[in-house]
Design a protein that fits this description.
By secondary structure, the protein is of the alpha/beta class. 34% of the residues lie in helices and 17% in strands. Strands 1, 4, 5, 6, 7, 10 and 11 form a seven-stranded mixed β-sheet that branches.
């Protein structure tokens, strides 16, 4: 039985010139140390495609596997995280709200400083470099605030846009704010009908495969002070 640790990051590197420090900024050296910890604890890096297949009951993962993910598509992933990932030979996944490509994180400007998000060419570059671009909805809403029809549109339209612009399969979804509307039946149906193989929340820890619910896969929330070694050993 394999154990899978899915790490959820947002920003790597320093705040922008007009931004302030928040918990979601992980310095490059801390990020590198956390990836080193994964390997020291026996976790092998795997890519989004392998995880997608395994969560859907196809294919095997190493006894201890780790997937690094990022939410929102911050340009810092390209500028600061990618060099570390490449140097340490880690693939990753990136969940993007399609309405904000080439814009900023306006959806949470009241709690987080505005920072630039990747444009389509930058997303394509990340995809080509081993950071698989996947869906984080269209407008990054809290699903609990939407109607079933609105939730379906967020799920289906984002996948269609990403596949059309990047010419790559999109099989994974991450709920904005980790809000899955208490896994309402319409959410599960929309994900399945659209061809998603799994969907991720935010918060939790490593887990044994297969998951209890492939449309509610939790991720370990990663910040600069996350005790990753303790989290990994707690799941041993």
């Amino acid at each position: 039985m394999s154990t899978l640790a899915v790490l959820g990051y947002h920003k790597v590197g320093p705040p922008g010139p007009e931004a302030w420090e928040t918990w979601y900024y992980v310095p490059e050296n801390v990020f590198a140390d956390q990836l080193t910890t994964l390997r020291e604890e026996g976790f092998e890096p795997v890519d989004a495609a392998a995880v997608s297949a395994a969560l859907d009951g196809e294919g095997d993962l190493p006894d201890r596997a780790a997937l690094v993910t990022f939410d929102d598509g911050y340009r810092s992933v390209l500028d600061h995280a990618l060099p570390v990932l490449q140097r340490m030979e880690f693939p990753a996944g990136l969940f993007v709200p399609t309405a904000y490509v080439a814009s900023t994180n306006e959806f949470d400007h009241d709690v987080e400083p505005e920072e630039p998000l990747c444009d389509w060419s930058q997303l394509a570059a990340l995809n080509a470099a081993g950071v698989s671009v996947q869906s984080h909805s269209v407008t990054h809403p809290a699903f609990s605030d939407l109607t079933p029809a609105q939730r379906r549109d967020e799920i289906t339209a984002s996948k269609a846009a990403l596949e059309a612009r990047l010419d790559t399969p999109v099989e994974l979804f991450a709920y904005p704010y980790g809000d899955h509307a208490d896994m309402a039946a319409d959410v599960r149906a929309a994900l399945a009908d659209s061809g998603y193989r799994a969907a991720f929340g935010y918060g939790g820890g490593p887990f044994a495969l297969p998951p209890d619910d492939r449309y509610l896969v939790e991720r370990l929330a990663m910040g600069p002070d996350t005790d990753l070694r303790a989290e990994l050993r707690a799941a041993a």
